[in-house]
Every structure is written in C-alpha cells, then in structure tokens.
Amino acid sequence: MTTETKALLVIDVQRGFDKPVWGPRDNPGAEANIKALVDAWQERGLPIVLVHHDSVKPGSSLRPGQEGNHFKPELDGVRADLVFGKKVNSAFHGDIDLDGWLKTRGITSFVLAGIQTNFCCETTARVGGNLGYDVTFALDATFTFDLAGPDGSVLTAAELSRATATNLHGGGFATVTSTKEILGSL
Questions:
Q1: Phi, psi of 50, rounded to the nearest 5 degrees
Q2: What pTM, to 2 d.p., does this model score?
C-alpha cells in the first residue's frame, strides 16, 4: 500500500442512521473500526474525505437542517481535507467533483468506509473502480440494514454485506479486506 497517495473516504457516517426506522443492522463494531481508520489517517497526515448524504425526501432524518444529517460522534474533531454532500448513492456524483479533486492531488487509490455497505459504499467503490482507482473496501468498517426485495422476502444485513463483498471482489471493483489488515499495511 502506498500511503502517500491513499486517501480515506468516509461515506455517510451520520446520526440519522441511528433511528429505529431503518430496522435491524449488522456489524455493531463498524463505528469503532471507522474511528480506528480515521485516527490512523490523521496520525499519518494522510488525506481524509468526509461525505454526507443530503436527502431530498421530505421525511428523511438525513435531510440538511435535521439533527440526523450531522456526522456521528466518532467523527468529532476529524481534520478532513474535504467535506461535501451528495444526494445520490455515489460520492463521485456529489456536490464536489471528487474525481477531479483526487486527480489534482495525485491520489490514485483510496480506502472506503461508512454507511450503508450495499448502497452508498458499494456504489462509490464501483464507480471508483470504473474510474481506475485502486479501491480498498474496509468491509468491517461499514454496516447496513435488513432489506425487503420486490417479492417481499427479506435479506438480512449480514447477507447484503456478504453480497457486496462478493460483488466488489468478483467484479474486480475493489479489494475487500478488514480494518486490521489495512492498519497493518500502513
């Protein structure tokens, strides 16, 4: 891992995801792993990008101006190099030209952590991979929620996370690994 050019992208680690409306989640240790990654990046002076979801849905707790739009306490005091919002899944389609920002700084690879594993995190990893970035997906530094399919059957959050890991690995979009492995290679 070339730490000089590896950024940390932290996606949608917002208080609104603590609301019970989302249902059962997986990976109760995700926030601790996210904090461990952020702390390691800060200690080394490596670039950190914080992204927040700015929902346009009227009742969403992730809407700007709502308490749920704020970052979770694990990100308090983070000295981010870039902070911006997005209204769709991919951070590459947000309020900032993330691709341009990374390229201008010579950043060719990034580690991805955040919420939700199978939506904004997976989509950002896929787009990043398509754009030619070396993407490392910290699976244990993400979490998601159970989700019903079109036939009403429910996939658990753990099943969805496993599917994301399979999609990203099998599709060649990202290296899927653990926080411990990432920290050990810094």
A1: -110, 130
A2: 0.96
